[in-house]
Amino acid sequence: MNEAARLTVGDTAPAFSLTDDAGNTVSLSDYAGRKVLVYFYPKAATPGCTTEACDFRDNLAALGDLGIDVVGISPDPVDKLAKFKADQDLNFPLLSDEDKSVMTAWGAFGEKKNYGKVVQGVIRSTLLIDEEGKVALAKYNVKATGHVARILRDITA
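Below the sequence we write its predicted structure tokens.
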């Protein structure tokens, strides 16, 4: 199986500038000097992705108390992200990576197993980027349910 090149702790996070759910350009450099949790998900408004997004929404205060911002990235177009954000009352930016170039650079797009078949797709992933733009935590092939609790446990351990 040909896996995407994954980022590991200590790597410099690849720069990006993407359009968010409100039509604004958001760049990784906007978070310089702060910690940011970047999570990649396959498709807005699907059951797993909704569960994961709502988990981040419901835990945003706990993450904020640790000085961590949250950004979600999917290949969905901006209008779909805006609807998803409104429907789920999400309180963090959702970014559109329609050409999947950012996902590929971050190791979140490539071959994965889906119901026993090898397919090309978005690899549900979460990476914590520190104040210097380095990867502090990298989780690939994460489960949507209970994911944020596992992340909080890992970063406060």
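The longest helix spans residues 47-58.
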